[in-house]
Amino acid sequence: MRIGIFTDSYRPYTSGVVTSIVTFKEELIQLGHEVYIFAPSYPDYHEQEQGVYRFYSLPSPTNPDFTLAIPVLPGIKMLVKKLNLDIIHVHSPFTMGRVGLHYARKYKIPIVFTYHTLYDQYAHYVPVAQELARDMALKLSNNFCNQCDHIIVPSKEVETLLNGYSIKSPVSVIPTGVPLHKFEHIQKDWLRTNYGIPDNRRILLFVGRLSKEKNLEFLIRAFRQINMQMPETTLVITAQGPLETELRDLARSLDFSLDTDVIFTGALPFETLVDVYSSSDLFVFSSMTETQGLVLIEAMASGLPVVAVRAYGVQDMVDDGINGVLTECDRNEFCNAVIRVLNDEILYKRLKANAYLKAQNLSSANMALKLQEVYEKLAENSTPRRPRFHDLLARFGS
Q: Which of 93, 273, 296, 380 could form a cystine bridge with 144, CB 3.0-4.6 A?
């Protein structure tokens, strides 16, 4: 099949959405499909992939790392027609999602939308009228869903949420899977070697964008309590984002050393991130707005137990008491859970073993097969379109 993916973010930007797109793209290519990406451009980024078409973009005023595509690309009409796509898959109800929807309707191509984000909970990025922005985001995303042929959601919790929004389009739960083969050759001492963390320190790891919705002030303040009771602990925060300077300042204000106590690594490529997971002792997660929390499964693929705040998406990934521990957004409860897991060797080993099993069940290869099944059913039921050019040649030649 020939699959066109329209997205408001892509490499080199780092996010769960980008990771999902890249992961599914790699698996779909392995299954024999052709995948084409339509995405924003980024300053000073030189394209390294074939089949990626970039739209001129401007930096977002509230998040300079994120660029906003101008939905005009010279020749796109002929390009989409020439590619003769079987499926259009969009990953946002906004700019690029609307472009994908336009061409899906124009050329009668089935369209799939992955509902990655609880859009109303990102209204804080709008500098004014945030309540209005929240309502508009909900109405816009719901309306967009009803114009698509199929909706993909990463968790059952999001499916339940959409059911309450009167969305009529069919919905399938297909989480982004983990490419388990990338976790086979790892450096278990990568963090200690590269950041000089002593062997006697237990390493707590967070991976995710440094942004308000990740609730990182809660995590750093919680770590203050943890570290007071267990001084031989280090918190590693891996990613980048608009709050990095503010979070560094918070850590310093709590008398943490940024060399040994709370370490910010910045964004790292996935090949290195695998080593970061594998050289940690516990994954800690405080976000309240996840639709899946892909990093949770990535951590589990390294056999990391998880302590996380109970939230949408998180509850689908972490089975409380089996492969991790879920708490309310209460600092004392969260701290007590972390300390209990680290101090109880039997509990720790059980959570670790079950975490790995959970990741095995959510491999990227298995999830891509489920997505392929959705694509095939839509293609079978779609309105017949013009024959492919090479099919016409074959017919003429016969």
A: 93
- Distance, in Å, from the CA atom of 181 to the CA atom of 116, rounded to the nearest integer, reads 24
Provide the number of structural domains found in the chain.
2
Query: Which DSSP state fits 85?
Result: -
Largest interatomic CA distance in the chain: 80
Nearest Cα neighbor of 148 from 115, 173, 185 is 115
Q: Are residues 223 and 86 in the same domain?
A: no
Whether 133 shows a pLDDT value over 70: the answer reads: no
Do residues 215 and 247 touch, judged by C-beta distance below 8 A? no
CB 209 within 8 A of CB 240: yes
Paired with 35 in beta bridges are 3
- Mean pLDDT for the stretch of residues 137-159: 90
Give the global pTM: 0.78
DSSP string, 218-265: HHHHHHHHHHHH-SSEEEEEE---TTHHHHHHHHHHTT--TTTTEEE-
Q: Quick one: 130 and 240 in the same domain?
A: no
Query: Do 207 and 277 share a domain, yes or no?
Result: yes
| Sequence-ordered strand ranges (E) for the chain | 2-6, 34-40, 52-55, 57-59, 67-69, 87-90, 111-114, 150-153, 171-173, 202-207, 233-238, 262-264, 282-285, 306-309, 324-327
**Residue 186, strand partner residues:** none
183-215 in b/e form (b: 16+ CB < 10 A) is beeeeeebbbeebebeeebbbbbbbbbbbbbbb
Backbone angles phi, psi at 232, to 5 degrees: -85, 55
3-state DSSP call for residue 363?
Answer: strand
Peptide bond into 269 cis (omega under 30): no
Q: Are residues 134 and 227 in the same domain?
A: no
CATH of residue 7: 3.40.50.2000
